[in-house]
Amino acid sequence: MTAAVTAPSATLRAEAEARLADLATPPGALGRLGDLAVWVAATQGQVPPAPIDRVRAVIFAGDHGVSDHGVSAFPKAITPAMVRTFLAGRAGVSVLAAQHGVSVRVLDLGVDDDLDGVPAEVTAFKVRRGSGAIHLEDALTSDETRRAILAGETVAAEEIAAGAQLLVSGDMGIGNTTPAAALIAASFGLPASEVTGRGTGIDEAALAAKTALVQHAVDRAGERTADPVDTLTALGSADLAASAGFMAAAARAGVPVLLDGVISVAAAVMADRLAPGAAAWFVAGHRSTEPAQSLALDKLGLEPVLDLGMRLGEGSGAVAAVPLLRSAALLLSQVALLSDLH
């Protein structure tokens, strides 16, 4: 499953940088928008870049065994309720996506509920109900992990076939910041104390217990964390494994991915391990309040577009950044060139 990824064209990047330097603006005046414009052009393989009209977000939903062990401020019954809220178009990301013309698809990979009455396509890729409590047992079996990764790859192919120019991987699952922190800790050899955050807003006592749980989980996994599939099996979940497969497949296909918060970034770390070099196709939508997210972005060499103190998940921070990427692409294509001024 680990096939290396070809980076966006260095030649086209240089061509985009030359065009940026020739815009009728003072050197560096566009700041980060100029950097994003160059990245968009390189990932599209064309200078100037095309308008970013087709952005598609997929929310991977699943429950996590650790949610029964005091790591979240909310009960796991929230997960199936939120799946229905996405379908009704009433979640935070739904509002932002409608505003910015982003399609949203929600998939149940491991929700601990039968989701009676939801459309069949929502549960078509379901791997299991819930996942193991990672400090006590593996999250998944090896077969379940591979099925989840394959599901993500299949969904990426479907979204790309539907015309996606830019993909967003969203998440929904009470307790999901715990496996995300564990995956990041295990991937980079970091202690739990540096990566564990408050998630949905837990107090000091719960944070201490959550930190200990993450460390215990990473210690339990031991040397198995040298392999990305084994890491996801021991410390991940079906939704996280699917998200990692989704992003790895997008990068292999040369379609860029806009990252969200800590869950999305943990999956991006795993995608870069499954498909070395995949991170060159990722851009960080925003900086969340979770410490593991900032640490992982630094390791991946990614600088967030927005820093709004958001921690909603769902892909919401990424979707909030979509207008800036669109603006960047349009500036590089539509601003007059100095060489054309007479």
TrEMBL record:
Record-level GO BP terms: cobalamin biosynthetic process
Gene Ontology MF term list: nicotinate-nucleotide-dimethylbenzimidazole phosphoribosyltransferase activity
Entries under Pfam families matching the protein: DBI_PRT
Glycosyltransferase among keywords: yes
InterPro entries for this protein: Nict_dMeBzImd_PRibTrfase, Nict_dMeBzImd_PRibTrfase_bact, Nict_dMeBzImd_PRibTrfase_N, Nict_dMeBzImd_PRibTrfase_sf
Catalytic activities: 5,6-dimethylbenzimidazole + nicotinate beta-D-ribonucleotide = alpha-ribazole 5'-phosphate + nicotinate + H(+)
Lineage: superkingdom: Bacteria
Entry-linked CDD domains: DMB-PRT_CobT
Keyword terms of this UniProt record: Cobalamin biosynthesis, Glycosyltransferase, Transferase
Active site location: E314 (proton acceptor)
Pathways per UniProt: Nucleoside biosynthesis; alpha-ribazole biosynthesis; alpha-ribazole from 5,6-dimethylbenzimidazole: step 1/2
EC number(s) on file: 2.4.2.21
Gene3D superfamilies with a match to the protein in the record: 1.10.1610.10, 3.40.50.10210
Function of the molecule: Catalyzes the synthesis of alpha-ribazole-5'-phosphate from nicotinate mononucleotide (NAMN) and 5,6-dimethylbenzimidazole (DMB).
Similarity field: Belongs to the CobT family.
Full protein name: Nicotinate-nucleotide--dimethylbenzimidazole phosphoribosyltransferase
Taxonomic source organism: Aeromicrobium fastidiosum
